[in-house]
Amino acid sequence: MRAAEAALREAHQQRLVQRQRLLEQSALQASDLANAAALGQLAAAEAAEVASREQLSKQLAAFEAAQADKAGMSQRLESLQGGIGQFHARITELQAEKVQLEEKVQRASTTVNFLQVEISNLKADRERIKLVASDSEGRIAALEKELEQAKQSVSVALKGLEAKHQADKLIQEQKQLTDRAKAAQAAKAQEAVIAALRSGCYQLQECLQVMLAEAWALKTGTRQPSRGDTSPLGDQVRSRHGSKTGSVEQIEGASSGNEASSKAANIALSDYGAGGADGAFGVRWLHLHQQAGPWVTVRAVMKETTAAGGASTPRSEANLNGVRYIGGPTALPCGLPALSFNPDSLAVLIGELILDKIASDSYADAHSAAAAASANTQDGSAVSREDESSAKAKGAAAVKAWWTARNRKDLEGSVYDFFIDKFGCHLAAEAHCSALVMGLRRLALRSRRARLFGRCLGVIDPAVPAAGVSTLIHLMAQLHSLCGPLTSEATDGSSQVVVRTALQVVTELLQPTLATACQAFQDLPAAISQAAGGHSDNSIEVDELLELVLAAWQAQQAADERQIFLLFGVMDVKRTGLILLEEFAALLKQVG
């Protein structure tokens, strides 16, 4: 803009200079013409005067001719005067035009002066803006320096905090390792104490049997008592029960045919911990941590009994903060006072447990498929010689073999097996199970992962049904398969997945089975995208994704349940609450 203004001013100045030159040229031309005319007249007058003088002096006779010449000259002068008048008129017109041009020049000068004033104002504004800009640049430079100093201070502070966090983390890990080592040592010591107690119980049983046999022999008179028999018997009992387990085969082999002694020896203490023996779905141990129900009453009675006999209980069997180490199906939850999980370690442990559950399910499914394939191979040759009914029987046998071979353990059994595989000791596994339950309940309010896993495990209300747990585990398996695996689950206790991948897995996994998709089920993709910021390229926390999927799954299950009740009501015409077998078959066809 300033360059345009400068160019405009320069062009205007050039036009003014050109007009001034034109005016000057016009004035000069007019004066030159007047001077030329005057000079011409003077020259003509002089020539005429000379001629007249010569003519008067030389020829007086040519007076009349001179008179005639004078008349011609007069005519010429008149014509010249007419031309001069026209010339004066033209000069007058040019002067009028000059006045007009001068007025225009005056107006242009006024405009130029105004523009010069504006230009001077703009220059002043420009100088002021330059001063403000320089001040602003100074302030910006100062602020940049302050920002750089603040960044450096924050970076130093963050590095200090990170170093402190790493140091605290190392200290915490060392403390946990120390606590776990102490817990393992304490568990081994308790196992040694339990083995010693079992050995003492077996010795007491054997001594009682020998005392009964001796009393019966004395009563019937068949054998005389001998004081030397007690020592070999004691050595025999110690040789039988010197091992940790005190197996039934050793006791039966050394009982020398005494039936009562053999029966007494078969009553051995359980080698399992508080969870009892393995069931169809794994070790049962969560009943020990129930907060209501019959097991609470049983534990209260045991606690009273333990408190009553605490005065005579050895220190190795004493209660530690209300938690007892003695195993058995009705024992108190086994635990160690110093064993606990902080939020980070609990999140990492949950990630490891989920990975172990996925691996266990994969192994169980592979075993089931192998069993079914083996059944098909064994019966293949026989089926080729059988009729259609035999083929159906073979198919039913294969299905039965596949079903009986399905040995997937639920989350409860998988958790117990994880700690068994890790520590190799039932008491240590039970102690860690107890610490896990207490950590889940303690951190449920501030940890989404602890709350969700506690609901899946059944120790936090509302509990997730087994089908919901299987759905979530299958979803995690798919995410591990498509994204990685998610190694941060077992290292950092958290992970993120891209929304596009999560939507692909959820769409393939969750499909309405009976009723039409409910509103929560339909809104699940939008809810997942909104939780990640509304864009499919963003990432979402896996725990938040699992909670959204679980809520949609539960809503769809409720819709399916309502649909089943509606169909049942349609079939139950008499409103008796019962339907016939044919009606039930028609209901299944309608559902299918």
Verbal overview:
With 592 residues, this protein is an all-alpha fold. The chain is 74% helix and 2% strand. It is built from 18 helices and four strands. The protein has a two-stranded antiparallel sheet.
List keywords for this structure.
592 residues; mainly alpha; two-stranded antiparallel ribbon; 4 strands
Looking at the chains present, what oligomeric state does this protein adopt?
single chain
Element pattern in H and E: HHHHHEEHHHHHHHHEHHHEHH
Q: In DSSP terms, counting alpha (H) and pi (I) runs of 4 or more, how many helices?
A: 18
Question: What percentage of amino acids are in beta strands?
Answer: under 5%
**Main β-sheet description:** 2 strands, antiparallel
- Overall pLDDT level: 75
- How are the strands of the biggest sheet laid out side by side? 1-2
Number of strands: 4
Shape: elongated
**Rg to the nearest angstrom?**
58 Å
| Low-confidence parts | 223-280, 311-330, 382-386
Q: In terms of structural class, how would the helical and strand content be classed? A: mainly alpha
**Terminal Cα span:** 80 Å
Percent helix: over 70%
